[in-house]
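Duplicate of #3305? Posting structure anyway:
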């Protein structure tokens, strides 16, 4: 066991004892403190948060669940995407410059290149490898795109169609759905050669495919990575990659089916998912009102799920009414929290107070390459999602108490400090609950 994990587990034992004590006796006292700090009963304020307040209202999921956070809706314009400030021209990036593709090209370390192969194809963890293998089934272009049906069915009411599209995605088991205006910079400039090609040919990008599509709308959906599994895990043990791929494969299947349905209606639609992206998911999620950029760099946190999700998207010209981006106070919160940076085993997340310019927009200066190196070469499991596990926005339980906490956290910097303190006091995020550990570890493969 690493020193990092050992220290974290000792810390956790202390937190768990304190948690039992506090949960038994201190909840009501804390509630009084909350009311004092904010000046209103959380339950009253939260009651006013329920109901769809953004875009078309789904019939199957009429009450958007922000987990108690106070959410404000913001306009899209040239200076802002949601709460991310645009300070220059945002260039479309090459998909081969992202994450594991970059490692497989040999641009990081020889070990990261070799272990990325082990991780993806040979199967560092047999269960996770089975999940990853499945996303290959939905990878071909013929699954993701194609020509629409020759007859365009009339869409007299785009709002009703937006409601219907959200209902379709929820029916197909999405946990959160949004519709956004598609920013032109949210497309990759080129699709990467396949990872198989990159393994064989290293840094030869001659098989890259230019991305020429420009659609007005993007439909994005999140699938939860599973609360109990996250509570039972360190965040970087055997199940870590499996958690990601549980949500990647499920959101990918939704994207493929929904894009195919829209093409059957006579409109253009393309599925974008983990094994076939033309669109960059971060800006698509923000444009669709599903989250804000966080301290972890380009990762988007949702007010209830945090980053305990993976997503996929459909770009389309179906007439729709887009949602607005949201602001739940994450920029202020990340400025004071730094919990992910404290807990990142790869040392990838910045402790800076403020975001810096990156490719024409402001984001925290987190080193995604260090993250990729850690995830591919992790000797204590398969990949990593420790930042996802510890983030206070990742709902730890379904209770008024947690909802009150997130409500406080969305109220500005002072209240952010209060939520961070409550989160640490209860040991949230760093705890590991043994009864939820259902998967097998295969340390001989790590
Ligand atoms: S752990 Fe804290 S600093 Fe990190 S992303 Fe979550 S809220 Fe922001
Ligand atoms: S996934 Fe792990 S290594 Fe990467 S930033 Fe998050 S905590 Fe750090």
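Output from current build:
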């Amino acid at each position: 066991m690493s020193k990092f994990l050992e220290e974290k587990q000792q810390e956790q034992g202390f937190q768990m004892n304190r948690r039992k004590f506090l949960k038994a006796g201190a909840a009501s006292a804390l509630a009084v403190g909350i009311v004092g700090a904010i000046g209103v009963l959380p339950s009253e304020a939260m009651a006013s948060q329920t109901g769809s307040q953004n875009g078309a209202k789904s019939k199957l999921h009429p009450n958007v669940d922000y987990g108690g956070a106070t959410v404000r809706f913001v306009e899209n314009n040239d200076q802002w995407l949601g709460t991310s400030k645009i300070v220059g021209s945002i260039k479309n990036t090459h998909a081969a410059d992202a994450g594991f593709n970059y490692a497989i090209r040999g641009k990081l370390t020889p070990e990261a290149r070799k272990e990325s192969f082990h991780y993806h194809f040979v199967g560092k963890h047999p269960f996770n490898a089975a999940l990853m293998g499945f996303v290959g089934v939905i990878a071909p272009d013929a699954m993701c795109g194609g020509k629409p049906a020759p007859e365009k069915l009339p869409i007299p009411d785009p709002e009703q169609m937006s409601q219907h599209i959200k209902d379709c995605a929820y029916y197909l088991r999405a946990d959160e759905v949004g519709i956004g205006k598609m920013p032109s910079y949210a497309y990759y400039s080129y699709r990467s050669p396949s990872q198989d090609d990159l393994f064989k040919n290293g840094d030869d990008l001659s098989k890259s495919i230019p991305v020429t599509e420009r659609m007005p709308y993007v439909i994005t959906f999140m699938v939860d990575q599973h609360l109990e599994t996250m509570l039972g895990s360190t965040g970087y043990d055997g199940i870590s990659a499996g958690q990601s791929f549980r949500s990647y494969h499920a959101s990918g299947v939704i994207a493929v089916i929904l894009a195919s349905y829209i093409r059957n209606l006579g409109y253009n639609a393309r599925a974008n998912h983990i094994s076939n992206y033309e669109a960059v998911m971060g800006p698509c999620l923000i444009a669709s009102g599903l989250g804000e950029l966080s301290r972890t760099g380009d990762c988007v946190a949702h007010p209830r799920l945090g980053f305990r999700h993976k997503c996929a998207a459909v770009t389309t010209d179906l007439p729709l009414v887009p949602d607005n981006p949201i602001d739940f106070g994450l920029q202020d919160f990340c400025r004071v929290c730094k919990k992910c940076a404290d807990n990142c085993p790869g040392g990838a997340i910045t402790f800076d107070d403020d975001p810096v310019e990156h490719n024409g927009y402001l984001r925290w200066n987190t080193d995604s390459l260090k993250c990729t190196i850690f995830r591919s070469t992790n000797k204590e499991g398969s990949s990593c999602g420790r930042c996802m596990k510890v983030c206070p926005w990742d709902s730890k339980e379904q209770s008024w108490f947690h909802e009150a906490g997130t409500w406080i956290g969305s109220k500005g910097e002072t209240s952010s400090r209060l939520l961070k303190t409550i989160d640490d006091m209860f040991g949230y995020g760093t705890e590991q609950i043994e009864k939820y550990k259902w998967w097998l570890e295969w340390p001989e493969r790590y």
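Confirmed duplicate; merging threads. Residues 3-445 form one domain. The first strand starts at residue 72 and ends at 73.
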